[in-house]
Specification:
This is Outer membrane protein assembly factor BamB, contains PQQ-like beta-propeller repeat. This protein is α+β, with helices and mostly antiparallel strands and 906 residues long. The protein is built from 19 helices and 54 strands. β53 and β54 form a beta hairpin. The relative contact order is 0.07.
Length: 906
Amino acid sequence: MPKRIVFIFIGLVILASLVFYGFSRWQGSREIVDLWALVPEDAAVVVETNNHQALVDHLEETELWQSFSVLPFIQTLEEDIMYLDSVAPGSQRLERFLDKKDILTSVHIAGKTDVAFVFYVPVSTVGEHRFLRSLTEDIDKSPIFTQDTREYQGHLLTDIANTRTGRSFTYFTYHNNIILSASPVLVEEIVRRITRGNPTSIAAEFKNTNYLAQPEVYANVFVNYRVLPDLLGLFLSDEVMPTVRYLATLCQNAMLELKLEKGEIFLNGFSTPEKLKNSLHQVMQPQAPQPLGVKAYLPNRTALLLHFGLEEIERLRLPLQHNKSTYATTVDSLAQTLSQEAALAYLESGSINQSPEKVAYVHLGQPMLAQRLLTQLNKQVSAARQQKPLTEKYGSYTLQLLNVPELPAQLLGRVFSGFEQSYVVQVGDYLLIAEEMATLRHLLDDISEEKVWGKSVGQTAFIAKTLQEANMSVYLNTVNAWYVLNRYITEEDRDNLLRHAPLIKRFSQVSLQFSIVEGEYYTSMVVRKPEQINNAGQNTLVTEEIIRFNSRLVTRPFPLQNAVDRSREVVVQDSSFVLHNITAGGKRGWTDTLGASLQTDVKQIEYGADKKLRYLFATSSQIHAINNQGQPLDNFPFNLPDSLTVQHLAVFDYEKNGNHRLLVDDNMGNLYMYDMQGTAIQGWQPRRLDYRLAAEPQHLRVGGNDVILALLENGYIYALNRSGETLPGFPISLGAPLTSGAVAKVGADLKRTEITAVTRYGNVVTFNLQGRVLNTEQLLRPSKRALFELVPEASNGRSFVIARQEQGKLALFDQDLNELFEKRYVTSASKIVQYFNFGGDNRIVAITERGPQKTYLYDMKGNLIGNRTLENYQPVTIYFNETSNSYTLYRVHRNELMKLEFTVGE
């Protein structure tokens, strides 16, 4: 009996122990775990979602899903889920299991080149446990997968590999949660984090923040700014990383809400300032944020803009660098006149091999004092260098060279570094600084022509979606920045960038802004697909107007602006030598009977006290200038020598002050220059070059010097000064004939100005204005019949393409000498090739066959616009309407002038 009691007692103790052990395990498994505490501290981004299906449904409704579904990450994830579903028990699907759960996804840097993800998924019900157990068993039986288990610091890790895709993942369970990743190293790091005990949440500062409780919010997004630069460093070149790392020191971390609308992604929330010494936040010590006042001077071709809005903008230059120069005090005084705004704009580039032009902007609190200090600084620097102060009048503006190394950085801090020298101009209450004089001239032209953000319908609509006042903002236009992105991305990731070009360019408007509010930065990120207006007829050509004349039209429609309202119109000439003006509304304007055929294009200049637009052109022996009523200006037409047959007319305004020079050349290579009163200019009566010019003479303004570039058909190139004298080092010979002009990248001086020309046989030659050949490269020439020409853009000639024609085939190359496309045509005769570049992806190529009298319009991928040809035998004129995102084309056929509207789809 006593033994039985003893055994019963021992049995009860064992049973009680088992019950207690089981209860403890049950309690442990039911313990609520803060998944955020499991996330390693080196996570760059963490995303929390709680309604997977609602997010996907909304993406599909807003048409965002079709854009994101092409990403490799999404495609890989969908493929993995498909394979797992194929072995899932019954009708249960993995997507259904994942739906309506608080799931975390953390993003990490894996090794030196990869990005890895970790998924943290709670298992809430008995049914879900049963599903996972069955799924694990079915995976073990499936020939698609292999499954191995191993113990690591007291936790059972399972490694699963897909035998068909080669991909694998590792997971373990912890208190009714599954932690899974394709990186076993990260999974092991999380186990070690648990083993150490009491891990702290990576988002502890935001423990009371949960945007998912709000309507229309699809995710909480945590950003770790301390790690984010390392993540970006996987994709960006070392050249830009110091700036990226410094900008990231504005904040330590953030919690943002994710909202989605049609064609738009919004991330809004708060970021914690970075309190470390010498961080950007500590330097700025921001107070009231400022509006984007500089938008009135930002060109539409801006690719990337970094903008600061601070009451004390001079704080950006802290900590001050010791400056021993004689003009240091003047620089300090100039810095004290700055206020509220500073910005750095990178402009659109046409080549991956070209450094993008950049312009620094800063608001002047005391414009008059700043102007005096700029003049004083110019004199001090020139005296120190024993040089004459360099200033240039450009219209009503005065441009100055301040040869102070890194002047923007001295005024505005390290973010504004990279200016070897500085050309400055004051526009309103803003100081504009660029490395090249030509950059400022082009920028002033954009401002004059209202091609700026403040006048852009598309940009205005975008800015309305962003914060109206901020302390720091980054704006990116992915289309304008395409070559910039290609230049500064790592070589390994460039292929991925090209592969996803449609998606990246589709969501082309991006902004990231920080605005101080009660000690924290309200943070807003907008990713937007610009609205496409009036695009129902994408890739169609619609005839708007047909205007018939009594006589056959013999010239192309020349593009002009209306002298009164600057609207776009055209001029054509008929076979009876009458010049006809057609307004934008399709009305007939002025006419002018010339009595001879046009030999040149029709030019427009601002001339006279009223600075109205006038028209200039030449016949074989006369130069004409008329007003907007078709009446000749005083002294015109100019009668040229009887022996002269005009080939080209070039018009120069050296200092943008209305003092125009008219330069014509004849078929013998003689050049004649006149002023607007008909006075012959000394040195040009004539200036003999002994061979016919291949293209219209070009005027370049380089470091205060005027250079006239003349390319001859025999391959010789002359660079002449105002007096017609040949510059040292010229002429140079390219060793082969030329049939087209050149494109110049104007630098600070003759040495740094680069000219690119293409010989008839496909040799691409770059030389400077000292007559030194810098680079030559031979394009592929399939046969001796293959001939080449450089085709500059129609509007300003700052970018170009290269055409190769051979036996009815035409191939087009970009500025980096990559082939864009090749087409075959009916005839073998030479085609007329035109290139229209309106910025970003708004680029059109028009190719005209004179024999069949057909014009083909292509986008830059070689897609035929409108899927049809146009009856036409002259070059066409194309305008771009930014408001409607559409194009207007003018063409002539027999006695008809036709106006067409068309759009180009994605």
